Amino acid sequence: MHSNKTLNVILLSVIAALFFIPFLGRVHLFDWDEINFAECSREMLKLGDYTRVYVDFKPFWEKPPMFFWMQSLAMQCFGVNEFAARFPNAICGIVTLVVIYLCGSRVYDRKFGLLWALAYGGSLFPNMYFKSGIIDPWFNLFIFLSLYYFILYTWKRNGVDKEGLKKTAVTYAIWSGIYMGLAILTKGQVALMIFLMVLGVYFIYNRFRFYFGWGHALLFLVVASLVTATWYGYETAKNGTWFIAEFMKYQYRLFTTHDAGQEGFWGYHYVVLLIGCFPASLFALPSFFRSQYSSRFDKDFKVWMLILFWVVTLLFTIVQSRIIHYSSMAWFPLTFLAAYTFYKWERKELNYKKYVGVLTTILGSIIAIVLLAVPLIGLNIKRLIPYVKDTFAQANMAAEVTWNGSEGLVGIIMVLTLIVGIRMLRKRNYAGAAWTYFGGTALVIFLAAAIIVPKVERYSQGAAIDFFEARQGEDCYVKVLGYWSYAPFFYTHKEKPTNENSYNEEWLLTGNIDKPVYFVTKVDRVNDYAQYTSLKELYRKNGFVFLKREPVQH
């Protein structure tokens, strides 16, 4: 039996690696987050300072260093490139699917564990994020593990009917604290906030009965604090409180104000989860309602997952900034509920609801139409330019990108997935339906990342990135005008400035510069800089205008 479980873990790891690792470096990093984080890691290596986070060689207090440690380690192994920047999350993808399988197997059985891993790995955004260079996949995993070990702790302490809990309640509390400390080191105190809110709601659900010991709660906090002290404590002891104080202020500001362009309507995260977590989001629907429970722990674990879902989605609905990955923690409970639906259908403990198949077909068809339309638009994009009003977008669309129509294969696979999936559901072959929907979606994402995304990226930022890469090794300054981008730092392999004036835009435009300055702006903003007569236009490409200013020869 044990070897069977080990074999499943090995197979799952290999399949996850095959889905997440290939093509990681096929497309440039995207502004802002991906390039921002990769640049922080590059500067860590450049400066040899692993205790502080920098961007553009200035202190960057928005994030703790855990993820940057992972990225800089990958960069030491694979070089400063896109593959290295995204590699930690590919590893996170493998670890996450194995963790979910093992958790599902422990709480229910191996079939459930596989269903849950399948639902997570075969839903749109959860899968796509493992091919990205952003912080959230590791952050979410650490929070989930902290909560999971806390649930095991409560079962052990309160004598819930669960076999296999061989360790002591204290051990589970310590592991919960360790993972919480790692989560805080990855993205900050919001991890503890989510955790405590979930515990608070469970306390109310539990009719205000204490399900934990205060000594154990204190132990949890002490362990979490000791883990975070490896950075917070060290940084404060070495450099004083300034950096940590700025970091705390930023965390508070993030919750109380929205950044420019990041506000949205109140139901934003529910729409993002519905589409982004397809098809798990729709298969999860029946499990939001009451079902037949096989045991006390079956009901209890589902309650914890439901609370986690509502806490995350309501908390980030209240938060002013509307950013897609804020609600990504909800992918764990949402994919759990999708697996739960299939599991209960299989065991005849939940009646099949036709609306699930209908809604999945409708939303799946919309996604398939979009995927089929992309190559069609690509082949005819020049004809569409006159109908677009935005001059920057018009110029983007003029990029030379080769489409041959074979990209439509991605959409065709989505259509086949929907046809075979709905047939499986009609035959009540629920296991087959789960493998079809989630396996098919995973294949669609894999092919889209390899075939479609690199071509789309050429329209959005390709010309600018090419220009920055061409400046590598050249003794010059590179600056964007009229918009913000982290790309000039990462893609020029910027060295630490020796002249503080180089941070001053006005000095670069009009001052007595000591080396050439390259400027990159957009076609709809270039006229704002027409008064700077010393700027010489080099060329224009795909919406970007490239300018140069030479130092005055004395």
Short structural summary:
The chain has 554 residues and is mainly alpha-helical. Helix content is 63%, strand content 5%. A four-stranded mixed β-sheet has the order 3-4-6-5. A two-stranded antiparallel ribbon has the order 1-2.
Can you walk me through this structure?
- By secondary structure, this protein is mostly helical.
- A hairpin with a 2-residue loop joins strand 1 and strand 2 (about 60).
- The longest helix has about 30 residues, at about 355-385.
- The chain folds into 3 domains: about 1-350, no CATH class; about 360-460, no CATH class; about 460-550, no CATH class.
- The protein has 23 helices and 6 strands.
- The protein has helices spanning about 1-20, 35-45, 65-80, 80-105, 110-120, 125-130, 135-160, 170-185, 190-205, 215-230, 230-240, 240-255, 270-275, 280-285, 295-320, 330-345, 355-385, 390-395, 410-425, 430-450, 455-470, 485-490, 505-510, and strands at about 55, 60, 475-480, 515-520, 535-540, 545-550.
- A 4-stranded mixed β-sheet has the order 3-4-6-5.
- It starts with a helix and ends in a 5-residue tail after the last strand.
- This is Glycosyltransferase family 39 protein.
What's the helix and strand layout?
Blueprint lengths: L1 H19 L12 H15 L6 E2 L2 E2 L6 H13 L3 H26 L2 H12 L2 H6 L6 H23 L10 H19 L2 H16 L8 H16 L2 H8 L2 H15 L11 H9 L3 H4 L12 H23 L12 H16 L7 H31 L6 H7 L11 H18 L3 H22 L1 H18 L6 E4 L6 H5 L13 H6 L6 E6 L13 E6 L2 E6 L5
Parallel strand pairs: 3-4
Antiparallel strand pairs: 1-2, 4-6, 5-6
